Amino acid sequence: MHKVAIVGRPNVGKSSLFNRLIGRREAVVADLPGVTRDAKEGLMLHQNHRITLIDTGGLWSGDEWEDAIRQKAEWAMEGAQAVIFVLDPREGLSAADYEVTDWLRRLGKPVIIAANKMDSPKHEVYMAELWGLGFGEPVAISAEHARGLDDLLDRVMEHLPEDTEDVPEIAPIRISLIGRPNVGKSSLLNAITQTDRAIVADMPGTTRDSLDVEWDYGGQRFVLVDTAGIRKKPDTAVEDYAIQRSQAAIGRSDLIWLVVNAGDLGDHELKLANLAYDSGKPVIVIVNKWDLVPDSDLKATEKELNQKLHHISYAPRVYTSAINEYGIHEMLAEAMKLHEKWQSRIPTSELNRWLGVWQMRQSVPNFHGKKLKMYFMTQVETAPPTFAIFCNRADFVTRAYEGFLQNRIREDLQLAGIPVRLKWNEKGPYKRGKNAENDD
């Protein structure tokens, strides 16, 4: 696979161009500098080429993130076969633009200048001074209006060999790391990949956008998504949009790692657990910073976890420390196991044998002398496993009895740790023409 990096000073439209080229809004875009900090990857296809496109943070930003952003951009340059240098000619060349130019010359990579915000041909008069940077003819584009992108890609293609790489047959497992700010999501991602892919700092809100990282473990491909920390009340519009991007990342994921701080549990964990619960995806609770909990507090901390996360008590837990890499392999191994279970399909004959056993094991609800009768059970969906039960009266199903059945399905059908959905369908003389449905 080929690799192309997008670089430039802050607020010239790098993320807008990235979103245009990959064909979806993956990167957070806002009308202020410094929104992108980490190096964000996206896959694009063009003329039989599979290209990993990398959006980098604004270089020479002059703020506290400048060194960290440049380190991530230098990582993006490793193996890059071409670099798109984004400039805003309408503002003129700045000192930061010249700093980026000198840095690119030292790296010695092929550079294509993308003169952004050229919304119409009349704006191209501003491009004259770009020739003096020594990277050849600039390409006039407008990321906002999708102008000039074909010309830009034609220039990029000149530096890429023909793509003969086969598409991997094994589909990746996509995992989102969610949690409130500063619980150690980015540190865990770095510990797993043995890199410094994500910027880590001792302050909340460092991660501003979801960051996708491909990783291979035991022959299984993963896409690990480091999401922005989800606050109760976002402080800025950028944070609010970053949270929306995190929620969208959860929707596209196969599995969720809910990261909590072992020594600092609050009511916000309940909200995040609800978010994970409602997604219908398998959830693994990652109890991070476990090494910082004193031995005398271990039982009390576990009890507090049980109380706050009781409604996802089915979710397995992994106790970790990003600092000493404790529990890292268990995170990935548990994810592989749950992903396989999530796609399980149980034969109808086996389900109905167990349905008879469960009715004998626990008395069915009884209302005014009338019992709930369950006639038949079948699996109607996978990912998550969803079961339809045909009964006489769906309104007779109590929450407690439904919970009993869900627990039995997990225990007796080897689906431990998996969210289970039940759909109730009425059949017989009491059928009222509607279904009762509950999700777990």
UniProtKB/TrEMBL annotation:
Organism: Deinococcus indicus
Leader peptide range in chain numbering: none
HAMAP family xref list: GTPase_Der
Domain EngA-type G, residue spans: 2-164, 173-343
Family annotation (NCBIfam families): GTPase_EngA, small_GTP
Keywords: GTP-binding, Nucleotide-binding, Repeat, Ribosome biogenesis
Highest taxon in the source lineage: Bacteria
One GO BP annotation of this record: ribosome biogenesis
Coiled coil region boundaries: none
Binding, GTP 1: 8-15, 55-59, 116-119
Gene3D superfamilies: 3.30.300.20, P-loop containing nucleotide triphosphate hydrolases
Sequence positions that bind GTP 2: 179-186, 226-230, 288-291
Record-linked InterPro entries: G_ENGA, GTP-bd, GTPase_Der, KH_dom-like, KH_dom-like_a/b, P-loop_NTPase, Small_GTP-bd
Single GO MF descriptor: ribosome binding
Protein name: GTPase Der
Family of this protein: Belongs to the TRAFAC class TrmE-Era-EngA-EngB-Septin-like GTPase superfamily. EngA (Der) GTPase family.
Keyword Transmembrane helix (UniProt): no
Quaternary structure (record): Associates with the 50S ribosomal subunit.
